[in-house]
Design brief:
The structure is a single chain. By secondary structure, the chain is α/β, with parallel strands linked by helices. It has a domain of 173 residues: 3-Layer(aba) Sandwich (Rossmann fold). The protein is built from eleven helices and nine strands. It has a seven-stranded parallel beta sheet, with helices on both faces. The chain has a two-stranded parallel ribbon with strand order 7-9. The termini are far apart.
């Protein structure tokens, strides 16, 4: 059977990685995004997840769909996004939702986590054949201008305590995991923690950069309040506040293991090989 894949958020960094992987695998891809721009070969539907008509148009004739939730943390708005996806996706064979974060076991009161938890629960209860992916932090965050400048000067600043172990995931591996999930019926109805090939502390991450780049790199824990101030200049105060709230919660030792993972388990579940940390660094 020939499938048409819809990618919601196709012109974002995470959705774009899914698009690239599906195109590389030879699939027909339709993208839904606020700006109809991106890789050649994509059929574009311009629209917003808050617009039910645009979402219905994007799903028309689609057999498989990937959705990445936007960086919005207003509970009513994210609930509206989720309801529009569920209402339009009734005819799909498979849907893979990337909620863009891991979820603590208990509710936290932090919208950046709980809007994602609510979206995942609503989708999995809808009867749509779906898999929910819960990634940790993205390696590609370290390709942002603020990070690359610091790395060039021998520093790796990040708003996590140095001892936290993180299964850093690349966008390319997210694309591979999403593509693989479509053909893994055993993952249907599940919320799955995914992550990268190496689980490292901050100093171990810096040591990997040191080994590959050939100059000393030191990990520097950043106060989440200071991180929020800098991020607000790039993405605006509302998004920055939402993102920073996750790091404030993670500063609590009770949540120190939230972004850990078992790479071998992920590879076995999805049937892919994850990219080693040093290989990723060498390509940047």
């Amino acid at each position: 059977m020939t499938h048409t894949y819809l990618v919601i958020g196709a012109n974002g960094a995470q959705g774009g990685a899914v698009v690239r992987r599906l195109l590389a695998d030879g699939h027909r891809v339709r993208g839904l995004g606020r700006a109809a721009t991106g890789p050649a070969g994509v059929e574009w539907v311009r629209g917003d997840l808050a617009d039910p008509a645009a979402v219905r148009a994007a799903f028309d004739g689609v057999t498989r769909a990937s959705a990445t939730l936007p960086m919005e943390f207003d509970p009513a708005l994210v609930a509206r996004y989720t309801a529009n996806i569920i209402a339009a996706a009734g005819g799909v064979e498979r849907l893979v939702l990337n909620i863009g974060n891991r979820l603590p076991a208990a509710r936290t009161g932090v919208p950046a986590f709980e809007t994602r938890r609510d979206a995942a629960e609503a989708l999995l209860a809808s009867g749509i054949p779906a898999t929910v992916l819960c990634p940790p932090l993205y390696l590609d965050n370290l390709s942002a201008p603020w990070a690359t400048e610091a790395l060039a000067n021998g520093a790796l600043p990040y708003p996590l305590p140095a001892g936290h172990r993180v299964a850093w995931l690349s966008h390319d591996d997210l694309g591979a995991l999403t593509a693989a999930a479509f053909d893994r019926p055993e993952l249907l109805g599940q919320r799955v923690d995914v992550g990268g090939a190496d689980v490292v502390t901050g100093p171990e991450l810096a040591a990997a950069f040191t080994a590959v780049r050939g100059h000393e790199v030191t990990y520097i824990p950043v106060d989440p309040d200071e991180f929020e101030k800098g991020l607000a200049q790039a993405v605006g105060p509302a998004v920055a506040a939402g993102v920073a709230s996750t790091y404030r919660l993670l500063a609590d030792p009770a949540h120190a293991a939230l972004y850990e993972g078992d790479p071998a388990k992920v590879e076995a579940a999805f049937g892919i090989s994850l990219t080693p940390l040093r290989t990723w660094i060498a390509t940047r």
